[in-house]
Structure formats: structure tokens, C-alpha cells
Write a structure and sequence with these properties.
The chain is an alpha+beta fold. Strands 1, 2, 3, 4 and 5 form a 5-stranded antiparallel beta sheet that branches. Strands 6, 7, 8, 9 and 12 form a 5-stranded antiparallel beta sheet that branches.
């Protein structure tokens, strides 16, 4: 069982090293989240950056980071803001508690603009809620120690903490796809869908120029749900391979010239002509079929689905190609699409 052994002087030394207090940093967000160990650490440094030291003090358990609160505050006399990065969290259960080990790196910016990087580990404790009595104690910091680091802030987070094995490496391609999706579509997607993990597919294949002895290539496909309206759901896809890395999948679509009698879409459909092609990053009501290696889309032009467009995109030689596109442009209450692009049929 791990014991709550905390070296208070380590925190005092750290505080004095990065020290300094100024007016509340305008860009420091208010974070008070005790739902998990990583969130508590982020909340601690949110409080320090905002100079809300009573809140910062409260994230610690019975063993505090300084001999008293005034010493704790004085340790940050010249600190302006503190940025924090965390690594893979490990956990260990013992005697009614769960102990979490959190690798941490911080970049402390002083009032004079100078910066210092520190790295180390925090141990946090979560006491089983069912055995507690009032006042209830949420996850709290049990101990921790940070030391000056010569590494760049982005690379300073320790690989692991605690006695257990290092956490598994992060899926670099997935993380890059998630960051690209959030950066590009964060303001356009539904918030609940934006928070969901993508569907992930692995596509193994041999390129057209590969020999029989060549190993298979792999492309990974990431399907992100983005928005859901009354009858259409929109998705974004990213692909990743060893050659081109992570990139957003673009869908080719024909640009149509559609003519109606008296220019009335409720009237008779006179004809449809392809006048060009364009691409879109959006896929509507889409699905990926692992057996056929195809992505299909179906865009309803109105709720009953009697007018629509749909595409079929086949994976071959490391990318998706448009092989069929159907358009139903008649608002007649019936589903009667016409195929306007067909590369499934041999010439």
C-alpha cells in the first residue's frame, strides 16, 4: 500500500524557483474539475495561474505543499502564469482507495517574462465514496515532486510514474486525426458528437504495382460523426498511411445542371447534365463496408427522401475513388434515382 509521504520542501523550492505574483492573468481559464486525477492537476495549475491560492491549497489532502498557507502563497510572489501538460495516468488500488500516478511537466512564466520548465510526478488518492462519511472528500493530491528540466516543454513530460509498467504509447495517427478534426470542425459540429471517439478501420491491401512477395500495405480510416439534423447526419473522414501520413478524405461529386418544366422543381423533370466535378469533405448519412471496402453516402434533399443524391466510393491502391453516383431530382413522392456516374460497369 502506498503511504502519503509528501516532501513539503520540494513544493516550496519549486514555488520559489518559478516564483512571482502579478495581477490575474486574463487568458488563464477557470478550471475546477475533480472528476479524475488529470483534471485535478489541471485545476491546480488553473488556480495558480489565476492566483486563486486558497483554491489551489484545497486540491491537496492532509499533507500540504508548504508549512502553512501564507508560505505557500509567498512561494509564488513573482509567478505570472503556469502551463501544464500531463502524460499517461497509471493507477493502483489499496485498502479502500485508488492511487493515481500522473506524469507532469509545467512551464512557469514569471512576471519579468522569463520561463522555466519543471517535470515530475504527482500521486493522487481517491477514497471509496461508499465508505466515506461527511464531509465527503473528492480526489485529492497526496504527494508530488517536480524538478527543473532542460527539455523543451513539449517533450518534458516523464514517460511514466509509479511502480507499474509504462502506459501504452498513444496512437499517434489517431491523436493527429482527432486534433485536425477538432481544429477544423470544432465550431461546426454538434458538441456531443464532437466529444465522441471515431470509428476506426484498418484496410490491408496490395497496390497494383506490388509483387507477390511484397508485404501488404495498411491504410487506417477514421470516421468522425459531426452533426445530426432532422433527416441527415454528416460525417468527416480521415485516412492515415506510412507514405502520406494523416489527411482528410475528400469526396468527389458531380456538379449537376438540373432542368425542370417552368423552372419549378415540383414540376416535371426535363433532364440532368453533369457540367463538372467538385470535392467535399462532408459525407452525408455515410457508412463504411469493410467487406466491400466502400464508403456510401446518401443525401436526402428533403425528409421523405424522394429527392436525393448518393455516392459509392471504392478503396483501391491506397485511396477512395468515386465509382457510382445516383441522383433523384424529381420531387414526386417516389424514390427513382438515376445513375449519372458509373465506373462499376465495364465499357
Amino acid at each position: 500500500m502506498r503511504r502519503a509521504l509528501f516532501a513539503a520542501t520540494a513544493f516550496v523550492s519549486l514555488a520559489l524557483a518559478i516564483a512571482g505574483q502579478s495581477a490575474l492573468a486574463a487568458d488563464a481559464p477557470y478550471i475546477d474539475d475533480r472528476s479524475n486525477a488529470e483534471a485535478v492537476i489541471r485545476s491546480l495549475y488553473s488556480a495558480i495561474s489565476r492566483h486563486e491560492f486558497a483554491r489551489a491549497w484545497d486540491y491537496f489532502g492532509d499533507t500540504k505543499p508548504a508549512k502553512d498557507f501564507n508560505s505557500f502563497v509567498k512561494g509564488y510572489d513573482s509567478t505570472d502564469t503556469v502551463e501544464v501538460k500531463t502524460g499517461g495516468v497509471s493507477e493502483d488500488g489499496a485498502a479502500g482507495s485508488i492511487y493515481y500516478s500522473v506524469p507532469v511537466a509545467i512551464r512557469a512564466t514569471a512576471k519579468d517574462g522569463s520561463e522555466n520548465v519543471f517535470a515530475g510526478c504527482y500521486t493522487l488518492r481517491q477514497i471509496n465514496a461508499s465508505i466515506q462519511e461527511p464531509p465527503f472528500r473528492s480526489i485529492f493530491i497526496d504527494k508530488g515532486a517536480l524538478k527543473p528540466s532542460k527539455a523543451d516543454f513539449e517533450d518534458a513530460v516523464p514517460a511514466s510514474c509509479g511502480e507499474g509498467p509504462p502506459p501504452p504509447k498513444k496512437d499517434a495517427a489517431l491523436e493527429q486525426a482527432k486534433k485536425a478534426f477538432a481544429a477544423t470542425y470544432g465550431d461546426q459540429c454538434d458538441k456531443d458528437l464532437l466529444a465522441q471517439e471515431p470509428d476506426i478501420f484498418s484496410i490491408h491491401y496490395k497496390g497494383k504495382d506490388a509483387s507477390a512477395s511484397d508485404p501488404e500495405s495498411e491504410t487506417r480510416l477514421f470516421h468522425f460523426a459531426c452533426s445530426a439534423a432532422a433527416y441527415n447526419e454528416n460525417s468527416i473522414y480521415y485516412m492515415s498511411d506510412d507514405v502520406l501520413g494523416v489527411r482528410q478524405l475528400q469526396f468527389a461529386e458531380p456538379e449537376m445542371d438540373i432542368r425542370y418544366e417552368n423552372n419549378d422543381s415540383d414540376g416535371k423533370l426535363l433532364g440532368m447534365t453533369i457540367v463538372g466535378f467538385q470535392t467535399s469533405g462532408w459525407a452525408t448519412n455515410s457508412d463504411y463496408d469493410e467487406e466491400t471496402k466502400t464508403i456510401t453516402s446518401f443525401n436526402k434533399w428533403r425528409g421523405i427522401g424522394d429527392a436525393s443524391s448518393s455516392g459509392t466510393y471504392l478503396f483501391r491502391n491506397g485511396d477512395f475513388s468515386l465509382v457510382q453516383y445516383d441522383v433523384d431530382a424529381s420531387y414526386d413522392g417516389e424514390e427513382n434515382p438515376q445513375t449519372v456516374v458509373d465506373y462499376n460497369t465495364a465499357p
